[in-house]
């Protein structure tokens, strides 16, 4: 059994129709058991990355290893919920779960799926076409969790959900994942909704990896500094700096202690992400050790 | 792993087959209804329809090919036979539209295909089920209607002779009386599915599916007279009578060469000037029914196989 959930090596995907490079030489490694947020602006390649991991499309360059094999080999052990939560509108909730059982005969856990549906007080005889967005998301998640996946891929899972449903579903999802050691990868362009729920970050910008690694390590590797506009940040890597009047605020990757007159603070996840998105020129930072080096 | 194995219940549908029947239940009922209506019409025509019409003509005592077609009993028989053979003829168009639109196009457009592919079902198995289940039901339905049409054909011979309607080589009767009705229905399924995969849209898949099918149908039908060597009859003074499907005609010179008829119309000098010594007609006698039928069926099934192959290739190239 491998301890790597996803490993990408120089992964690239170009869409022939649009001629656009959706993903460009992405290299990262995601250990098993983490809850990873894939963050980036719209069009950064988040959905493409998840679709590649789910074996729904093929990369045009590089390789992607899922749970030690190809995405296709991992099909039975991964679950994927697309952004628009596609379900068959003519089926009832109960029939949708039956579909999950029929199409996953070896791994289906009906009790889990039924519990997820029951948690939303959904009538099993209600047609999918009559459900609200939140209810549909719940059914889609029930279908994914009923498969008892080792890797759960969620593309913008919480978009179009009201705050209450978001809180409920996320709580249920994370509790289930923690209990079973499921690796969860979820994408979002709303950073706030991920804060507190993930321990790993993958920041994508224009199809490239900008940041990857354990969230705590990434935050610890950056410092938010404030000081006079004339100050010198010396050897440190400056991700972004902004001057307001005579005051300078910068996000740096310190090399050695930040001395002098600088006031320092640890950045929040949102500050870390936004600074990197505002400065496309900032160098990439990978704190996910390759598998060989992992203990 | 706490994987729970669901025992396959004997005697019930399961897996992808269950999914196919459930997801396309309305299409299944529509097909059952269409086959039932066509079968009912053909059976009625075969029984009371033919009997009543023949009774009328027997009383009238009109000669072969001279009996009018305005009689009510005959028109009822004709309507029933037309409904039966007509539904069998339009079935491929409906099948292509359904396969391009509802079966494949809509699933790709709405993303439900991806839903299936991220269960424990590979895209290739998904497409195989999408094609195999309808193919079995389509074959059963069209073969049943073909057999009923042949039954009617065996019974209404005198009626057709009396009124001079519906020859064996008429396109509708020719298709409905043999393996071609089934072959074209299967071609429609394959072409529709390919169109759905190409367009990934419901409406576009439907349109391209129907257009593709009609184009192929017209192209193959154009070939039909040339699919088996014709019989030739010749005459010295005018065109000889033929008993079958006309293919070609023209004039013959003294060397036996086939030339265009100079249209001399009994003008001996004109005929001599053009060196015309006779006239010929190429045709297919009714004994050519099965050779023509089987060669065309082979071609249609080969095109069907190519479309299926292309569909699988396309899907495999796009997904893993």
TrEMBL record, chain A:
Q: Which GO terms describe its molecular function?
A: ATP binding; ATP hydrolysis activity
What is the superkingdom listed in this entry's lineage? Answer: Bacteria
Please report the organism this UniProt entry assigns to the protein: Streptomyces spinoverrucosus
Task: Write down the InterPro entries for this protein, in alphabetical order.
Answer: AAA+_ATPase, ABC_transporter-like_ATP-bd, ABC_transporter-like_CS, ABC_Transporter_VariousFunc, P-loop_NTPase
Q: What is this protein called?
A: ABC transporter ATP-binding protein
ABC transporter domain residues = 6-231
Which Gene3D superfamilies does its entry note?
Answer: P-loop containing nucleotide triphosphate hydrolases
Q: Does the keyword ATP-binding apply?
A: yes
What the entry lists under Pfam families is as follows: ABC_tran
| Keyword annotations of the record | ATP-binding, Nucleotide-binding, Transport
UniProtKB/TrEMBL annotation, chain B:
Source organism's superkingdom?
A: Bacteria
Annotated keywords:
Membrane, Transmembrane, Transmembrane helix
Transmembrane annotation, as ranges: 28-47, 79-105, 126-152, 172-197, 204-221, 294-315
Q: Does the keyword Cell membrane apply?
A: no
Q: What is this protein called?
A: Transporter
């Amino acid at each position: 059994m491998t301890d790597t959930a996803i490993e990408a090596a120089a992964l690239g995907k170009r869409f022939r129709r649009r001629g656009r490079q959706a993903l460009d030489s992405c290299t990262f490694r995601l250990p098993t058991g983490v809850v990873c947020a894939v963050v980036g602006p719209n069009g950064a390649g988040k959905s493409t990355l998840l679709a590649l991991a789910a074996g729904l499309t093929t990369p045009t360059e590089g390789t992607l290893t899922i749970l030690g094999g190809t995405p296709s080999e991992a099909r039975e052990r991964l679950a994927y919920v697309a952004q628009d939560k596609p379900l068959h509108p003519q089926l009832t909730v109960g029939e949708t779960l039956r579909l999950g059982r029929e199409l996953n005969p070896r791994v289906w856990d009906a009790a889990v799926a039924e519990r997820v549906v029951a948690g939303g007080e959904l009538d099993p005889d209600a047609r999918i076409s009559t459900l609200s967005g939140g209810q549909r998301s719940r059914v889609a998640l029930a279908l994914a969790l009923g498969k008892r996946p080792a890797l759960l891929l969620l593309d913008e899972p919480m978009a179009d959900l009201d705050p209450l449903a978001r809180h409920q579903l996320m709580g249920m999802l994370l509790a289930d994942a923690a209990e079973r050691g499921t690796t969860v990868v979820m994408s979002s362009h709303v950073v706030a909704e991920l804060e507190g729920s993930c321990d790993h970050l993958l920041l994508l910008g224009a199809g490239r990896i900008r940041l990857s690694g354990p969230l705590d390590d990434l935050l610890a590797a950056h410092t938010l500094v404030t000081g006079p506009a004339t100050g010198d940040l010396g050897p440190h890597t400056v991700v972004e700096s902004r001057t307001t009047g005579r005051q300078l605020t910068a996000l740096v990757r310190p090399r050695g202690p930040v001395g002098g007159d600088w006031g320092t603070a640890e950045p929040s996840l949102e500050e870390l992400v936004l600074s990197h998105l505002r400065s496309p020129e900032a160098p990439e930072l990978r704190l996910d050790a390759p598998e060989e080096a992992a203990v | 792993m706490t994987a729970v194995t669901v025992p396959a219940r004997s005697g019930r549908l399961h897996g992808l087959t269950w999914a196919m029947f459930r997801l396309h239940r309305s299409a299944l009922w529509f097909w059952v209804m269409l086959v039932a209506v066509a079968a009912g019409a053909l059976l009625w025509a075969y029984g009371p329809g033919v009997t009543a019409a023949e009774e009328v003509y027997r009383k009238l005592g009109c000669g072969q090919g001279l009996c009018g077609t305005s009689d009510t009993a005959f028109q009822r028989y004709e309507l029933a036979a037309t409904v039966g053979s007509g539904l069998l003829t339009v079935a491929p168009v409906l099948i292509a539209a359904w396969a391009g639109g509802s079966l494949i196009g809509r699933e790709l457009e709405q993303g439900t295909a991806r839903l299936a592919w991220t269960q424990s079902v590979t895209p290739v198995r998904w497409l195989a089920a999408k094609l195999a289940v309808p193919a079995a039901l389509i074959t059963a339905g069209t073969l049943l209607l073909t057999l009923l049409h042949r039954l009617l054909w065996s019974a209404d011979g005198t009626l057709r002779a009396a009124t001079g309607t519906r020859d064996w080589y008429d396109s509708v009767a020719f298709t409905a009386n043999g393996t071609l009705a089934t072959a074209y229905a299967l071609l429609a399924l394959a072409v529709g599915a390919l169109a759905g995969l190409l367009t990934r849209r419901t409406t576009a898949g439907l349109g391209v599916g129907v257009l593709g099918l009609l184009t192929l149908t017209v192209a193959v039908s154009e070939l039909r007279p040339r699919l088996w060597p014709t019989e030739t009859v010749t005459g010295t003074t005018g065109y000889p009578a033929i008993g079958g499907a006309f293919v070609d005609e023209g004039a013959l010179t003294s060397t036996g060469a086939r030339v265009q008829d100079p249209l001399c119309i009994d003008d001996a000098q004109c005929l001599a000037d053009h060196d015309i010594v006779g006239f010929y007609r190429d045709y297919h006698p009714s004994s050519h029914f099965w050779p023509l039928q089987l060669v065309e069926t082979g071609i249609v099934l080969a095109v069907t196989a190519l479309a299926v192959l292309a569909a699988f290739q396309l899907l495999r190239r796009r997904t893993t």
